[in-house]
Amino acid sequence: MEPEITASRAIVRYTKGKPQHVRDLIVSEYALTIKVNGSELVTMVCTPDHIEDLVVGYLLSEGLIRRYSDIKRMRIDWKQGFAYVESDRVNPLFSDLKQKRYVTSCCGGSREGFVFAQDALLTKQLNKQTVHLSPDDCMAFMNQLQESADTFKQTGGVHNTALCNTQGMLINRMDIGRHNALDKLYGYCVRHQLPLTGTFLVFSGRISSEILLKAAKIGCEVLLSKSAPTERAIELAEQLGITTVGFIRNQSFNVYTCPERIG
């Protein structure tokens, strides 16, 4: 049985200095261990929804498998918190899975040593220009992401991302971890063979180098964010030909790289 993604808790809320006993919705954390061919690969802390998409997106973006068809079988044990994956096409670089990795709900240094060794092989050069957005488009798509973020409205504790084209939002995903939300989205696209030409990402969180690389692996040439990019992310976006737009709020935003797709 799948766990609930939120839980109700009794809290004390202060408004203008006055306490009030109320109940509040809190987002759940779920520890998921991925086992590949019987060996533990990683334990990640995530929001317990769209777990199959998360596992597929993670394995693909980390380079452990090259395509969805490399997975022969997958089974989720919700009670014990395990995802069992069987594959006879595991990337040889990951043949020794004895050094288990732990991934928290935050992202950054805990994952960098694992992913960057494969980045040169997995990222795509995105010098094409199939996406052109007006300033109004940038604001409208960010507003649409925020309007669709029901769990965030209830708890304030998750990140949201959406795959869009100029006609509208195609799919959205959320998680307590920014990287998990993107892996869920990527996994869905691959499992359902969703065409990615002419698509772009809208994202609620900071654009770190890892987030930028995940966008490149998905194949999106534009990344719109409510927050800021890091310097390393900007450098990578310039190298890969990705348009990064940040601080989309209050009728204002910054275009950091490849501005020819905006305006």
From TrEMBL:
It is found in: Cytoplasm. The keyword Transmembrane does not apply. It holds the Pfam family FdhD-NarQ. The active site is at 107 (cysteine persulfide intermediate). Keywords: Cytoplasm, Molybdenum cofactor biosynthesis. It comes from the Bacteria. The keyword Cytoplasm applies. Required for formate dehydrogenase (FDH) activity. Acts as a sulfur carrier protein that transfers sulfur from IscS to the molybdenum cofactor prior to its insertion into FDH. Belongs to the FdhD family. This is Sulfur carrier protein FdhD. It comes from Alkalicoccobacillus gibsonii. The gene is fdhD.
